[in-house]
């Protein structure tokens, strides 16, 4: 499967605070290459998450999430959120331009080729992964500059 080129996205979600009176919850991010459009009517997308990962656990409880389709100039963002074993994502978001999605509360990366906010419609167990199908609530094109960031043969690549 390393011979199949794929686009690179950052999946984000907001983990609500345990205490509604306490500090705001955490923002969580994850780099993914297994993302696709499923349907135009209704607008559905699919993301594949490693079973038991932090994002899989969060989206099992939190139905709202977002996707930023990364541009070729955002390789550093993809690498940062692909690191395994990190404790907190708070520092990883620190120097990345973003806005908070109005529909999902999740972070949307500035300069992304496109951003989507989604609500989970269905979760399907598939081997060691969970396929999460989400209904697209909002879609924006914040940047038309540059080409897509792709992943091929175990490395991030640019088209052309």
UniProtKB/TrEMBL annotation:
Source species of the chain: Streptomyces jeddahensis
Keywords tagged on the record: Oxidoreductase
EC number in record: 1.5.1.36
Identification of the protein by name: NADH-dependent flavin reductase
Organism domain of life: Bacteria
Annotated PANTHER family: FLAVIN REDUCTASE, FMN REDUCTASE (NADH) RUTF
GO molecular function, one term: flavin reductase (NADH) activity
Biological process annotations from GO: pyrimidine nucleobase catabolic process
Domain Flavin reductase like: 1-158
Alphabetized Pfam families for the sequence: Flavin_Reduct
Top-level enzyme category: oxidoreductase
